[in-house]
Amino acid sequence: MTLTLTREINQLLDWTPNATLADAPTVSAGDHKHGMRHVGASVFIVTTRDGGSRLGLTATAVCSVTADPPRLVVFVNKSVAADAAILNSGSLCVNVLAGDQEEIARVFAGMVEGVRGEARFDHGAWDALTTGSPVLAGALASFDCRVVKVFDESTHHAFLCEVLATREGGGGGGGGGQALIYLNGAFRRIDP
Q: What total number of domains does the chain contain?
């Protein structure tokens, strides 16, 4: 079988799904979510700057795609304000949270009553690298990116990004190299 890659959309147009599975029912959203609770995931703050506005959210759906070129994929729910801002600005920064940054994860997840929008950036120290998207001091690593493609995936957009600048350690986190993960409905610290 020969497969053709269409460069314009990076999709194998002559590939077809397994026909015997086409009509098989999927699990319910609840069953899927329950199962995914057992998958530990790094915690990220994804930020962007759209004109004079800074926006961000807590995320766990970020993945390295390739090292050459350096690419990440970042999934963002279409219902959050940062989604439209990322679409408009064409840039974002992925900040990998350290073990001692749980409170800022809660802030950007909307878990702290009364803290919304720009007020989220009153928590933590912020600067910028190449794109102008906010970069969190003390993050284990930050990946400043331009968006190169957007995929519409049901409730989310999948932003394929190229990394323009990185920073490790961020200069000030006291997490001692611990990573913050999300597992079984709770934030947890993991030693390296």
A: 1
Grade residue 3 by pLDDT with cuts at 50, 70 and 90.
low
Beta bridge partners of 135: 127
Q: Is residue 42's pLDDT more than 90?
A: yes
Q: Tell me which of 12-16, 177-181, 188-192 is least confident.
A: 12-16
Report whether pLDDT(9) > 70.
no
Residue at 20: amino acid letter: T
Q: How many other C-beta atoms can be found within 10 angstroms of the C-beta atom of residue 145?
A: 30
Which residues 6+ apart lie within 8 Å of 108 measured at CB? 45, 56, 57, 58, 120
Tell me whether residue 18 is in a domain. Answer: no
Distance in angstroms (rounded) separating the CA atoms of residues 173 and 139? 7
Residue 174 has pLDDT above 70, yes or no: no
What's the rounded mean pLDDT across residues 35-40? 91
Q: Residue 116 sits in which domain range?
A: 34-185
Residue 75 token pair: 């999934």
What whole-number distance in Å separates Cα of residue 77 and Cα of residue 157?
6
Residue 62 near residue 94, CB atoms below 8 Å:
yes
3 state DSSP class of 109: coil
Residue 62 maps to which CATH number? 2.30.110.10
